Each structure stands twice: as C-alpha cells, then as structure tokens.
Amino acid sequence: MDARSYLFVPGDRPERFKKALDSGADAVVIDLEDAVAPAAKQAAREGLQRWLSTADPARLMVRVNAVGTLWHVDDVDMVRASGVSAMMLPKSDSAQQLADVAARLPSRIRIVALIETVAGVVAMREIAGAPSVMRLAFGTVDFCGDAGIEGLGVELDYVRSQMVIESRYAGLPAPIDGVTLELDDLARLTGHVATARRFGFGGKLCIHPRQVEPVNRGFAPSEDDRSWAARVLAASREHPEGAFAVDGKLVDRPVIERAKRIAEFDARIR
C-alpha cells in the first residue's frame, strides 16, 4: 500500500512481464484496458490468465476494462480466479460502482480506484470511503479529456489537493499521481515527481521501465530528510514532554510524527 512506482505493461505482451517485474517497480500493473486494442482483448485476457497461474502475484495487479464495456465482466471474473490481491478499476465514478465490482471479488482483492472523469472527482469522498478501495490514483490525461482542460500542470492543482485531502480523510495511503508522457525527458519527470510529492502524493503511475528509478528515488526520503528525522527523534527522546528546538526551529508533536513517518518509510524501503 506504500508503493511508489506503478509500472504499466500491456496485457497482450507477456514477453514484457518479466522485464517489468525486474525493473524495480514497487507494483506492476498488467493492463487490459488502454494498452490493448479491442480485437486483442479476449486473447490478452486468456493469455494473462494462463501466465498468472504460474506467476508470483506478490507485486502484481491487473487493470481491467471499465464498467459498462464489453470486456469488463470477463476481466473481473479472470481476476477473481487469479492469485492477485489487487485490481485497478479505470473510470471509477461512484461508490456504488466500486461496491458492485467488489461484490464479485473475494475480500482479499483490494481495488485501486483510478479517478479519471469529472463524475469520479465529484464522488471522490464516497469512492475513497468504499470498503474495497486501497488507494486512489489520478488518471490525469483522461480526466483532462473529460473535463475539457488543456494542460497537466497547474490546471490540475485543485483536483490534486482534493485527492490528497479525501485520501487522508478516508484513512487511505497518499494517492498515486498520473503518468508523465515524455519518456526521454528526465528533467520533466523529476519535476513532476517533486510537484506531486509537495502536494502530498505518495507514488506515480509509470509507462516505461526507465521511469521507475527516478520515481522511486523521488518519493523516498532524501539524505537531508533522513538526517533531519534522526536529529528530531534523538532530541525527542531527550525531551519526552513539551516542545523543543532542532536546527533553530520549533519541534512539537506534528513535527515529531512527520519524523517518525520518514524513519518508518526509510526502514521499509531499505
């Protein structure tokens, strides 16, 4: 649930599955939706079902086709019979939609709700509170198309803030930011990660293995973060009651909790 990088791999390209798993991505999303042409969807599903019967499902999830499409029901049935413990639902538009899908899945399978429509944004509080939802993700490109918004930067600041707030309110992990389309522009990717992290996001969708390492690095504590957290926690042990100062700045309970989160996250990824 604390995954930083979610790497998409086309569901009809099984020769790429191992490469995706070897990329260092925290989670690999085998995509039966946008990455697969309509004529290839049935064959992709059947091939994925065979592959999953022999695969380690630990870091895998499947993005099924959206509710109401010709392929959705069969996709969900395949996921239900597989060993995966997570599924990504595109165009998550309502809590009722999530409940209907979850009712067809065993309780061990949790759902990443991909918010990529205006309806999904309007219903985000109810979606985040749905019992089956493990995390929210932002489908920025599709959302802009639905909303008529041009641009993936400051034009989406309001929605990003709302997604972080609703995730926190529902007790979910920090949400997952959308893709960076430029595959060879490391500076742009790094900038997108930094912006998402400042807004309170905890991960990012990736569309190529080369994006994984910068994303993982960008959402991990920096050396300065680690050093600061260690100093704060050491000082808090010396001052178990009341506020104190570290590096000339006031430290109180919320600051100590942030330092603890950095130390705990750092321990998990090392």
From TrEMBL:
SUPFAM superfamilies on file: Phosphoenolpyruvate/pyruvate domain
Coiled-coil ranges (or none): none
GO molecular function annotations of the record: lyase activity
Cofactor needs: Mg(2+)
Domain of life the protein comes from: Bacteria
Alphabetic keyword roster: Lyase, Magnesium, Metal-binding
Keyword Magnesium (UniProt): yes
HpcH/HpaI aldolase/citrate lyase domain residues: 4-209
Pfam family, one: HpcH_HpaI
Record's protein name: CoA ester lyase
